[in-house]
């Protein structure tokens, strides 16, 4: 081993590949051979997991509860009562906001009863006219950050209203307005806890890793079992997914606060509470704000998946439109999701950066001018809505609430575009796809499946050893062992095959585009903006055109993966390149290198650690999309996860399969992070 | 413990369903109706909701995944499901019933067919002479070949969660194994996309489909396999070569529904739509491009006689 | 030098780092055997520091990095826990204080300035300075008024609404100073306040600091690694090395009588004429010696009077504040001071 570690890295890798190939060709494929496939020793785990969850949820610690509906006492498990109370709490919040925006009776019911509402017809909360919401948001935008933001917010919301997506958009908004703040609060709270206690950090970090890399589909059933079905379940699934980055960034931010600032707080006489909330958290705000941005983006990215477990709104309508192959309509819904994401992001950022003027001596009117203007708009809006009842008569009152899909639509335009695309591109694409399968994809897939398990271990652990020593080798080995002992090893290999192909192509496209974009400041900004948009744009939408172009097969899944996974590769390349310290670039210029030499010899090597983190993200994104790709047609772990939605052992299977996917992601993550850390240290980039 | 009491509840509920006095008052708590991602189901949800509302009940719609919904009915998060397709959701439905908490609330008049088939133009253009008889398939696998099928013809089956390996077994049993292969689509959307794309190219395609469905209007033709007889499936001891039986379309409900809303439950258990009626509902959306709510309103207005019968 | 009781009093203060510390202390019943502790891998941040600081006095703690000067400061401000010894603030035992009392002490009696300014990045100049007042629970109006007054004091008017990142280093430290003074503390801690600044700005800030101190007369503990700065500002200097205070005395005495070789290393290059005052060099006026008509104050720094003395042929009388002659200065001692060869060393 000592001699081994003296070899240069390329040589070590060559040696490793050599051993790997020898093993591949010498180990025979036979069922009883443990070198070929390990026995599925933990195949019983899903059922056990399922049993214990169901036991916890439905049998453990039963308590008597009175059910007024059937006028009888029932036994109900303690845990179930707790989770259901939590659900009720979240649901009330969502409904309250929703009914402020769209009207309804449930808020009133919460304080009275359904009987009261049934008996009193007047007990209905009216909707805010959409014009008032638009005007109010514009005033908010103006108050927070002036004219520009006001115009943007106004335009975005007016678009949603005019294009007839008001109702689903407000439904989505109401659940995001609960899910996002809860995620932020939970994230900050856990972040603080992890900052205060090393033990908590050590326990929390792996959990966060798993929560972030676990495919969404795998926890849909557990969430419905624990929390029920409905908007609250959608919100909770969203919270599970959106909280981890917030925790991470809070912790990062708190750790980054200079000790002197902390001491300054102490010396200024802060008590513990003041120190935390007035000194530490605000000083960590840069990172925390990035976290808030991430939370908002994740919440809206989850809009579609959350609708599978009961979240109303744009996501559900989007699925419905896709089922009718109305890509144009789905696209309009998708644009609304992106607009809401950007609007919320901008508003929250401006709110956080708001400056208070202490010296202005304001009167009542001046101090409350924005509230007064909003009140004014409320009056005008209500009058307008009232007039609308005369103008539009029995038809839709466009001044009050525009029902779903009753606005302007550009659907025909997009639909024509999709049709044109399919008509024009399909023949060449078909030829290309056929060639691709025969010469590349099918042989590749078979090669993956032909790997003996021993060879796979040697390869993975070997890479781990070369990159991070014995520790990394063991980490990667443990992840792989888990996969190998399930009954899904072959499926995992197929997942790996899809992900590898997707990642390699995405990285090639993403980095080369990134390098090109980074040469020009304008192109850089455009590229980053596009990345932001594509990241929140529901990936479900392009599944349909992709399927129509490429057919229901692996190539369609791969295209979808590549479209999605190129985003981080591109983003991190651009960021890495533009952040190369100016002094080093100047030093390069002074030593007489030309543009290309500078790029190749200075910028790229220095940007590589950051670019590697991009590749890391590419892997995570690719795995995510391979899982979504199950909706097209795959025969990997993702397909099984989708299947687990109807399995009898749904919870256990879903969670175990989810863990398998998470472990693939975490193994790659571990190797790349270790490498990037080493590299950064070596380059002195901190 | 709970399981036992749940089962007891089911028995209790079932007995109440038959003996419940008609005058018992429905709870004013909303009845939660699930909506899934296909048109007929959503329109029917609003139709049933409309019927309940006409009886003075409160109704709430919950969007949900069509497989995950049975677990939700079991736990009372959703009150009922009005489209339980035998072959697609039978497994989920019976799984939930076995755990307790879900009751069978009767069957629709509509007989369903869930089977492999081809779009109308495949027959009209005579792409594979002799269809829809399955034997014709022997002579033209290349018509149905795709880039990834390795030269064989492809059957595009629904997701594996729907009927497991029913179709691969049938292929082998029919002796088509060396000429055809089964590809499992990931979702219904995948099937629709593939059908639309094949139609543009006038290309041959065999897919899983069902009726009643919006494709009925387009002239989708189901293939004719050896007739289904009890015991012909592999699981029942047969060779598995037989085609699908006419399937049922059931209704499911939470075990408390009959007790909390006796009148509504009675109507729901009587409720039964025919293939034609379901087709009408889907067509209002898919062909006439009405919104789902509007389609439901229109259907209720046009067919008052039909649904009034369930209420009385 | 002052008969009032000391404001800060340290009695053999220890700060020991290392995992074994707690165990060793328990074994030895609180007694500290330096060698034994060191053998176990403990590191002495502060090693038996004892001194007093009196009201209105400025003690400068001087030492190179790692000498323990900042640690000592942090023990006295209780930012870090003291391992052993006693610290009294205004006669009260600091180490026995409850957290609440400590917070009250800091809110009312202590102010601190930091090397890296340690301003809150999310608050404006005004908000930063008002911060300690708001923490105390003062109303916004009161605290803003007081903060505005502090801004005038440190000459930053017009920049109230700037964020720290929009200010130069010198300006940021003025904010830091204003913030530390906002609660009108009796005790003022300064931890290398000017070290991060350019030499020119540093000089300017030192002048500014002396101006403020002349006006405010705080009790000050000032930490620096710059011996010149220490000489310029201090009433007394404590020189630290490896946690030990090597010498604690007035600047002049340190220059004239360095206690250890280590201290001498610093004093060797010091231009004496800038440190010593007449009282340090004067001799007893012999009876009947003719003296010059020019008179110098005993506190005058040699540099400022050297030329005048050298221009005289007779010894120059040195007088105290009552204009009473306390000694004389002659050419020889001035020349020695200016050009080396210090006979008194």
Query: How would you sum up the global shape of chain B?
Result: globular
Strand content of chain B: 15-25%
Contiguous runs where pLDDT drops below 50 for at least 5 residues of chain C: none
Quaternary state of this entry equals heterotrimer
Helix content of chain C: 25-40%
Total helical segments of chain B: 13
Main structural class of chain C = alpha/beta
Overall number of strands of chain C: 13
Count of discrete domains of chain B: 2
Query: Would you give the CATH topology of the largest domain in chain C?
Result: Rossmann fold
So what's the CATH class of the largest domain in chain B?
Answer: Alpha Beta
Q: Can you give the mean pLDDT of chain B?
A: 85
Largest sheet: spatial strand order of chain B? 7-6-8-5-9
Task: Please indicate the count of domains of chain C.
Answer: 2
**Largest beta sheet of chain C: what is the strand line-up?**
6-7-8-3-9-10
CATH fold group of the largest domain in chain B:
D-Maltodextrin-Binding Protein, domain 2
What's the CATH H-level superfamily name of the largest domain in chain C? Answer: P-loop containing nucleotide triphosphate hydrolases
Distance between the termini of chain B: 39 Å
């Amino acid at each position: 081993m000592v001699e081994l570690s003296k070899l240069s890295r390329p040589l070590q890798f060559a040696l490793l590949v050599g051993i790997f190939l020898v093993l591949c060709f010498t180990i025979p494929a036979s069922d009883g051979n443990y070198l070929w496939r390990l026995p599925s020793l933990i195949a019983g785990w899903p059922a056990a997991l399922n049993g214990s969850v169901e036991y916890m949820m439905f049998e453990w610690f039963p308590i008597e509860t009175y059910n007024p509906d059937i006028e009888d006492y029932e036994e109900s498990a303690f845990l179930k009562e707790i989770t259901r109370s939590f659900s009720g709490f979240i649901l009330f919040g969502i409904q309250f906001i929703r009914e402020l925006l769209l009207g309804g009776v449930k808020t009133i019911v919460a304080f009275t009863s359904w009987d009261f509402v049934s008996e009193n017809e007047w007990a209905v909360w009216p909707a805010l006219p959409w014009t008032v919401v638009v005007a109010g948001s514009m005033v908010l935008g103006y108050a927070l950050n002036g004219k520009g933001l006001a115009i943007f917010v106004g335009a975005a919301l007016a678009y949603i209203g005019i294009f007839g997506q008001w109702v689903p958009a407000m439904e989505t908004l109401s659940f995001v307005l609960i899910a996002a703040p809860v995620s932020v609060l939970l994230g900050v709270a856990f972040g603080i806890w992890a900052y205060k206690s090393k033990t908590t950090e050590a326990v929390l970090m792996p959990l966060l890793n798993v929560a972030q890399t676990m495919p969404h589909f795998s926890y849909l059933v557990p969430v419905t079992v624990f929390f029920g079905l409905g908007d609250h379940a959608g919100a909770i699934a969203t919270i599970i997914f959106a909280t981890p980055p917030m925790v991470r960034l809070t912790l990062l931010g708190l750790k980054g606060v200079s000790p002197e600032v902390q001491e300054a707080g102490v010396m200024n006489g802060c008590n513990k509470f003041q120190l935390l909330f007035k000194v530490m958290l605000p000083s960590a705000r840069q990172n925390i704000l990035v976290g808030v941005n991430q939370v908002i983006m994740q919440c809206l990215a989850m809009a579609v998946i959350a609708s599978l477990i009961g979240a109303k709104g744009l996501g559900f309508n989007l699925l419905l439109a896709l089922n009718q192959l109305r890509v144009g309509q789905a696209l309009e819904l998708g644009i609304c999701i992106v607009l809401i994401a950007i609007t919320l992001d901008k508003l929250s950022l401006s709110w956080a950066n708001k400056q208070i003027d202490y010296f202005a001596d304001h009167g009542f009117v001046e101090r409350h001018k924005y509230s007064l203007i909003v009140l004014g708009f409320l009056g005008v809006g209500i009058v307008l809505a009232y007039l609308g009842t005369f103008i539009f008569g029995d038809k839709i009152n466009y001044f009050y609430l525009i029902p779903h899909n009753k606005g302007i639509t550009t659907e025909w335009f997009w639909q024509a575009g999709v049709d044109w695309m399919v008509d024009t591109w399909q023949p060449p694409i078909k030829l290309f796809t056929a060639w691709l399968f025969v010469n590349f994809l099918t042989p590749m897939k078979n090669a993956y499946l032909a790997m003996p398990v021993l060879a796979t271990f040697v390869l993975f652990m070997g890479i781990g050893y070369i990159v991070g020593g014995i520790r990394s080798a063991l980490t990667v080995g443990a992840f792989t062992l888990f996969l190998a002992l399930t009954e899904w090893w072959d499926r995992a290999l197929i997942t790996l095959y899809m992900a590898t192909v997707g990642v390699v192509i995405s990285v090639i496209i993403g980095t080369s585009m990134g390098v090109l974009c980074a040469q020009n400041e304008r192109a850089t900004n455009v590229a980053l903006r596009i990345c932001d948009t594509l990241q929140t744009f529901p990936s479900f939408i392009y599944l349909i055109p992709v399927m129509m172009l490429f057919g229901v097969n692996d190539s369609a899944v791969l295209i979808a993966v590549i479209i999605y996974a190129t985003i981080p590769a591109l983003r991190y390349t651009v960021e890495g390149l533009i952040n190369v310290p100016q002094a080093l670039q100047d030093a390069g210029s002074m030593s007489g290198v030309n543009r290309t030499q500078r790029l190749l010899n200075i910028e790229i090597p220095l940007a590589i650690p950051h670019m590697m983190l991009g590749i890391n993200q590419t892997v995570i994104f690719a795995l995510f999309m391979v899982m979504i790709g199950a909706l097209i047609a795959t025969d990997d772990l993702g397909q099984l996860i989708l299947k687990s939605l109807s399995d009898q052992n749904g919870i256990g299977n879903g969670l175990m399969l989810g863990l398998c996917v998470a472990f693939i992601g975490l193994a790659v993550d571990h190797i790349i992070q270790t490498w990037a850390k080493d590299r950064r240290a070596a380059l002195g980039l901190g | 413990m709970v399981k036992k009491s749940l089962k007891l509840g089911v028995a209790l509920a079932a007995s109440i369903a038959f003996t419940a006095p008609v005058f018992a008052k429905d709870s004013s708590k909303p009845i939660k109706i699930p909506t899934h991602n296909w048109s007929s189901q959503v329109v029917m949800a609003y139709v049933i909701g409309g019927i309940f509302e006409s009886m003075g009940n409160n109704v709430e719609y919950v969007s949900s995944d069509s497989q995950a919904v049975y677990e939700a009915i079991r736990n009372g998060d959703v009150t009922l499901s009005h489209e339980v397709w035998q072959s697609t959701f039978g497994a989920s439905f019976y799984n939930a019933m076995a755990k307790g908490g879900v009751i069978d609330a009767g069957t629709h008049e509509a007989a369903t067919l869930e089977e492999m088939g081809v779009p109308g133009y495949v027959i009209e253009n005579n792409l594979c002479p002799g269809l829809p008889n399955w034997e014709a398939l022997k002579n033209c696998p290349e018509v149905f070949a795709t880039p990834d099928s390795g030269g064989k013809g492809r059957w595009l089956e629904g997701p594996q969660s729907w009927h497991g390996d029913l179709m691969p077994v049938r292929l082998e049993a029919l002796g088509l194994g060396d000429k055809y292969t089964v590809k499992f689509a990931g979702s219904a959307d995948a099937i629709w996309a593939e059908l639309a794309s094949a139609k543009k190219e006038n290309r041959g395609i065999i897919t899983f489909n069902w009726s009643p469905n919006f494709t009925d209007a387009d002239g989708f033709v189901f293939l004719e396999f050896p007739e289904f007889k009890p015991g012909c499936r592999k699981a029942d001891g047969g060779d598995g070569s037989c085609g699908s039986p006419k399937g049922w379309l059931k209704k499911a409900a939470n075990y408390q529904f009959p007790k909390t809303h006796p009148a509504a439950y009675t109507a729901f258990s009587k409720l039964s739509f025919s293939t034609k009626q379901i087709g009408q509902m889907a067509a209002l959306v898919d062909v006439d491009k009405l919104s789902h709510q509007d389609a439901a309103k229109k259907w209720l207005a046009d067919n008052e006689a039909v649904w009034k019968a369930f209420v009385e | 030098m002052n008969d009032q009781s000391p404001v800060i009093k340290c009695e053999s203060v220890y700060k020991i780092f290392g995992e074994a510390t707690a165990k060793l202390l328990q074994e030895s019943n609180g007694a500290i055997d330096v060698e034994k502790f060191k053998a176990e891998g403990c590191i002495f941040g502060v090693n038996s520091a004892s001194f007093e600081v009196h009201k209105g006095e400025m003690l400068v703690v001087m030492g190179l990095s790692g000498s323990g000067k900042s640690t000592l400061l942090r023990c006295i401000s209780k930012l870090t826990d003291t391992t052993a010894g006693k610290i009294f603030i205004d006669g009260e035992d600091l180490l026995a204080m409850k957290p609440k009392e400590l917070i009250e002490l800091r809110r009312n009696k202590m102010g601190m300035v930091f090397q890296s300014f340690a301003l809150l990045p999310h608050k404006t100049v005004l908000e930063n300075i008002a911060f300690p007042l708001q923490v105390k629970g003062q109303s916004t109006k009161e605290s803003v008024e007081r903060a505005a007054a502090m801004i005038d004091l440190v000459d930053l008017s017009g920049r109230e609404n700037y964020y720290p990142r929009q200010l130069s280093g010198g300006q940021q430290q003025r904010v830091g100073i204003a913030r530390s003074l906002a609660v009108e503390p009796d005790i003022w801690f300064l931890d290398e306040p000017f070290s991060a600044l350019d030499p020119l700005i540093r000089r300017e800030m030192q002048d500014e600091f002396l101006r403020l101190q002349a006006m405010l007369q705080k009790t000050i503990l000032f930490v620096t690694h710059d011996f010149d700065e220490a000489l310029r500002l201090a009433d007394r200097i404590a020189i630290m090395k490896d946690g030990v205070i090597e010498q604690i005395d007035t600047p002049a005495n340190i220059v004239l009588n360095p206690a250890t070789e280590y201290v001498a290393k610093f004093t060797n290059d010091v231009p004496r004429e800038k440190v010593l005052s007449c009282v340090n060099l004067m001799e007893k006026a012999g009876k009947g010696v003719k003296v010059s008509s020019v008179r110098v104050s005993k506190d005058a720094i040699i540099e400022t009077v050297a030329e005048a003395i050298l221009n005289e042929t007779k010894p120059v009388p040195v007088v105290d504040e009552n204009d009473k002659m306390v000694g004389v200065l002659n050419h020889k001692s001035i020349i020695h001071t200016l050009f080396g060869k210090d006979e008194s060393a």
